[in-house]
Each structure stands twice: as structure tokens, then as C-alpha cells.
Amino acid sequence: xxxxxxxxxxxxxxxxxxxxxxxxxxxxxxxxxxxxxxxxxxxxxxxxxxxxxxxxxxxxxxxxxxxxxxxxxxxxxxxxxxxxxxxxxxxxxxxxxxxxxxxxxxxxxxxxxxxxxxxxxxxxxxxxxxxxxxxxxxxxxxxxxxxxxxxxxxxxxxxxxxxxxxxxxxxxxxxxxxxxxxxxxxxxxxxxxxxxxxxxxxxxxxxxxxxxxxxxxxxxxxxxxxxxxxxxxxxxxxxxxxxxxxxxxxxxxxxxxxxxx
Length: 261
Hints:
Number of strands: 0
InterPro entries: ACER
Keywords: Calcium, Hydrolase, Membrane, Metal-binding, Transmembrane, Transmembrane helix, Zinc
Membrane topology: Multi-pass membrane protein
Order of helices and strands: HHHHHHHHH
Low-confidence stretches: 1-8
Largest sheet: none
Strand content: under 5%
Mean pLDDT: 90
Helix content: 55-70%
GO molecular function, one term: metal ion binding
GO cellular component, one term: endoplasmic reticulum membrane
Distance between the termini: 51 Å
Shape: globular
């Protein structure tokens, strides 16, 4: 996976952009400052608005002032990624990468705290906070993108098994109908994320061919083949669906608390 460090050179406008020559470890197949000298990667920046839009569309309350931690984290991913792709500065790449840690943690916490005692919830929350803070500090200190990649992948692999357990656990007595609805949402979320990952890798591995093809198409059709932008859209859909799934998993617990109150 060394291609996460790949920088696609040959962009004659890179040094002319408002933000100067890119300093980030990561760069992508969209040509720098091709649309405007004020935004380094125009399509890769704008497509991050999908995170913000879906976070607000599927917010837990009708009020925009009552966003939960998962929605807030998804919005932060969109905003930090927008700023990073717009500037391609290394410091802002860290903010983008660390927002991904925050989003993963916001999914892990409710999943592993669900149906637990108050003391165990506190312990789980503390462990997740310390672990993510430690990983973030190590990553920023080293600057090695592989640390971010492996840490984020590890967190993702803690999310889906717990989700499946909460759907199918006999102790939770879910009906077959409930399980089908939850699994449908699970497959939608995971399918969107896997498809987005595949598209992202095409963008990484076939950049020269994509650039040549886009040049033949011209504006605006060429924008449809900025595949890293589709990675943003796909992961926004997958993440927002997973957030809705986690909320659906916790509905029974919330109803139980309401009855006790």
C-alpha cells in the first residue's frame, strides 16, 4: 500500500497556486490548480461537501443545534478534507487524517457501550479516547502515513464484527424482520465503502491513463472522471448509512430507558 505516499507530478500550475507548491505527503490524480488558482484540487475539494450534507440530512434531531457526536465527526471529516484538498499543505493533511480517527472513534464508542453498565461504558469510552489520542500523537510525530492507514484500518475492523453481534445476538431477542432491516442497512453501508475504496485505487493505479482520457473529454465531462471525488461521495454515503444503522441498533435500548423514566 505504498501508493498512499504517491505524488503525481507534472502539474505545471502547482507553483503558481495561491497556496504555493504542495507540501503534503499525499497528492492525488486531479491536476493541481487546473480550475482556479485559489483551490488546488477543485473537484476533490467540492465533493467533500457530501459529508456535510449527509451529516445534516440524517441528523438525529430536526434541530441543527442538536447534532450527536457521530454527525459532528462526519461534518469535521468533510470540512478538514475540503481544506486539505484545497491547499495541499502538510499541516492540513494531519487535520484531515485525524478527523478520520475521530469519526472511527465516534462509531466505536456507541457500539461497544451499547447494552453495558454505566461503569463499563465509562471504561470503554476512556480506553477509546486514550487509544486514539496515542495513535494520533505517534502519527503526527512520525509523519508516516502508513501509521495512520494501519491504525484506521484496525479501528474499522473493530466496528463491523461488533455490529453483526448486536444484530444477531440471541440475548437481544431481535425478530427476523428487525434483523433483515438492519442487515440491509449494513450491506448498503459496507457496499458503498468497498465500492468507494475500489474506485479510489483505480484513481491511484491508473492516473496517467485517467489524465489522458480526461484531457480528451474536456470540461465539464472530464470532472465526472475525477475518481477521488467519487471516493468522497461513496464514503460519505457509507459512513452516513452506518451512523443511521448504529442509531437503529440503539433504539431498543433508548426505548427501555424511556420506560424506566
